[in-house]
Design brief:
CATH class: Alpha Beta
CATH architecture: 2-Layer Sandwich
Radius of gyration: 14 Å
Number of strands: 5
Structural class: alpha+beta
Number of domains: 1
Number of helices: 2
Length: about 100
């Protein structure tokens, strides 16, 4: 029996780069939308926020994030929409350069 490779928060965050906000054309990691990750042997839980409270793509982004997390970890995954308000300072360093934000 071989041990499965250890799944890490860093690895999950890299995997989540495929989830792109269709309005902004940037991935959820660049935007800083993933606020916390709880990796357990039997379950993964992610808290995620949206760039606006009434984001029309929220259901699709949350579901795609859940799917990618579950594929990466190989265990059931849940996504919780956090109440924190997003602001551009949450973006990865350099990600807002094209917007002239920083």
């Amino acid at each position: 029996m071989t041990d499965a490779p250890l799944k890490t928060e860093e690895g999950l965050r890299e995997a989540l780069r495929v989830v792109v906000d269709p309005e902004l054309g940037m991935n959820i990691i660049e935007l800083g939308l993933i606020r916390s990750v709880d990796l357990q042997p039997e379950h993964t839980h992610v808290i995620m926020i949206m760039t606006t409270p009434f984001c029309p793509y929220a259901p699709a982004l949350l579901e795609k994030t859940r799917q990618v997390a579950q594929e990466y970890t190989g265990v059931p995954s849940t996504i919780e929409m956090g109440a924190e308000m997003w602001d551009p300072t949450m973006m990865e360093e350099g990600a807002g350069d094209d917007w002239g934000l920083f």
